[in-house]
Amino acid sequence: MTDASDDPDTEPDTPEDDSYDLSADEQSAETRSRTPDLDDVVLDNLDTGDSGDSDEASRGLFDDLLEGEPIFENKEVLRPSYTPHKLPHREEQINNMATILVTALRGDTPSNILIYGKTGTGKTASAKFVSEELETTSQKYEVPCEVEYINCEVTDTQYRVLAQLANKFINKNVEVINDQIGELEELASRAREDDAVLADTTFESVDVIDDEIDSLAADKEEFEEVPMTGWPTDRVYSSFFEAVDYHERVVVIMLDEIDKLVEKSGDDTLYNLSRMNSELENSRVSIMGISNDLKFTDFLDPRVKSSLGEEEIVFPPYDANQLRDILQARADVAFKGDALSEDVIPLCAAFAAQEHGDARRALDLLRTAGELAERDQTDQVEEDHVRQAQEKIELDRVVEVVRTLPTQSKIVLFAIILLEKNGVRNINTGEVFNIYKNLCEEIDADVLTQRRVTDLISELDMLGIVNAVVVSKGRYGRTKEISLSVPTEETEAVLLSDSRLGDIDDVQPFVQARFDN
Ligand code: ADP
Ligand code: MG
C-alpha cells in the first residue's frame, strides 16, 4: 500500500471529520485553535501594564499561552488521520477479514468482501490495519501481494478510479523496471571487466544483458501515465489492465465509501473490476468494498451484487462501554498524566453512544474538550468542557448542513426564521408558504407549490433543523406546527451568507405579508 501521507486519495477521512475544526490546515490547527483567545491575552497584558509591573508588561503576546501546563502529550492520536494499531472490540471483524485475505498469501485469489456499518464504527481503521499487516507479511514471505486503497468519496467516477489504479501500478512497474535495469547495468559493467562474473547468471554475454536492458526500457516506454481527464474510459481500463498484469501478483483493491461511487457514477466500475479475473493472465484482483449505507447493493446489477458480496462483514455500532475502552486507550497516549477528570471519558462515550455509537464523534469530543480546557488555561479537562465541546460540534454540524442546503430549502428555512423572530408561535405551513412566496419574488426564484414546500419542510425536519409536529385542531382538522430546532442567530447568519439570500435587505415587509394574506 502506498504511503498515505503522499497521496490525497488515500486519506480515509471524509470532510465531516473535520467539520468542527476551526482550521482546515491540520498542521497549524493547534496554533490557530488558540486564536480566539488572543484578544483576552492582549487585554490581560494591558491590565498588568496598568498596574505598573514593567516585567510583566514587557511579556510578549505568546508568553502567557506558552506558560499554561499543556494538557496534551500527543494530540495527533486523537485526530481522524491517525490509524491506531489496537482496535478494541473489532477483533472478530478483523479476524474475519484476515481469514478471507490469507488466501492471497498462498498465491490464490481471495473472495471479494463487502463491509457494512454506520460511520464511525471502525471500518476504515480496521481495513487499513488489516491491509498493512497483509502487505508486511507478504514481504516477509516474499509473496507478491499488494493492497490499493481508494477513497471513493474523493475519487468518485469510474474514470478517476481506474486512472488512479492504473497510475499506481504504472509507477510500481516503472520502479521495478528501474531497479532491474540498474542491477543489469551494474552486472554488465562488471562483466566488461571480467566476464567470469556471468558464470552463475543466465546471461551468456554482455550483449544479452544489453538486449535485456533494451527490452525493459521498451516496456517502460509503454507505460504512459493516464491523465486525470481526457482519455476514453476503455483506454484507461486497458492501461490499468496491462499495468496490473505486467507480472504475477494478487491485488486487493479496497474501495472505501463505495456507496458514494455507486450513487454518483453507477456500478460500471464494479462491474468491470469484478470480471477482470477471467481475462488476467499473470495477476489476480480481489475487491474489498466498504459501505456506510446498508442498502446500497439494492442499486447494483445482480451480477455485480453477487460477485461483490461473496463475503459480508458487518460492523455494528459501539455501545457506551465499548466507546469508553476505545477512548481510554487513546487518552492514555494523547493526554498528560492526570489531565482528564474522572467523568470526561464516560461522558464523551455517553454522548457518542447517542450518535449511533460513533467512535469518530467520541474522539472529536474528547479532543475538542481538551482544546477548550487548554484555552481556559486550566490543567484539567472537566465535564463542562465536554458539554461545551458537544455544543460546538453540534453547532458546526448545523452550520455545515444549512450552508449546503439547496436554495429553495434555504428560502423555506429563512421564512421560518423570520416568523420565529417576529414572535409568531405555532407556525403552520400556510404561514411559511406566504412568506416563502414573497421571498422568492423578491430574489427572482421560482415559486414552488405549497405541496412541495410542505415536502421541503419535512426534509428540514429529517435533517434535524426544524421540528414539525402534526397537531389535531379538533373539528378544524389537522395541521403542522413548525418550530426551529437550531439556534436562530447562527442559522440566519449562515443563510444570509448565501449570495442570493444576502440580497434581501429589508425583511420586515415579508413578515407583514403574513397578516395580509
Ligand atoms: P468508519 O470508517 O466506520 O466510518 P473509522 O474507521 O474511520 O470509521 O473510525 C472512526 C474513528 O474512530 C477513527 O479515528 C478510528 O481510528 C477510531 N476507531 C474506530 N473504531 C475504533 C476501535 N475499535 N479502536 C480504536 N479506535 C477506533
Ligand atoms: Mg470510513
Topology (SSEs and partners):
Blueprint: H1 29-33, H2 38-50, H3 54-57, H4 63-67, H5 91-105, E1 113-117, H6 123-140, E2 145-151, H7 158-193, H8 206-222, H9 233-244, E3 249-256, H10 258-265, H11 268-274, E4 283-291, H12 302-308, E5 311-315, H13 320-334, H14 344-354, H15 359-375, H16 383-403, H17 407-421, H18 429-443, H19 450-462, E6 466-472, E7 478-484, H20 488-496, H21 499-502, H22 508-516
Parallel strand pairs: 1-4, 1-5, 2-3, 3-4
Antiparallel strand pairs: 6-7
Helix pairs in contact: 5-6, 7-8, 7-9, 13-14, 13-15, 14-15, 14-16, 15-16, 16-20, 17-18, 17-19, 17-20, 18-22
The structure holds adenosine-5'-diphosphate and magnesium ion (MG).
Sum up the structure in keywords.
517 residues, alpha/beta, five-stranded parallel β-sheet, two-stranded antiparallel ribbon, 7 strands, disordered N terminus, binds adenosine-5'-diphosphate, binds magnesium ion
Can you offer a commentary on this structure?
This protein is of the alpha/beta class and 517 residues long. It is built from 22 helices and seven strands. The strands form two sheets. It has a five-stranded parallel sheet with strand order 2-3-4-1-5, sandwiched between helices. β6 and β7 (478-484) form a beta hairpin. α14 (344-354) packs parallel to α16 and α15 packs across α16. It starts with 28 loop residues before the first helix and ends with a helix. Mean pLDDT is 86; it is low at 1-54. Bound molecules: adenosine-5'-diphosphate and magnesium ion. Residues 12, 123-124, 256 line the site of magnesium ion (MG).
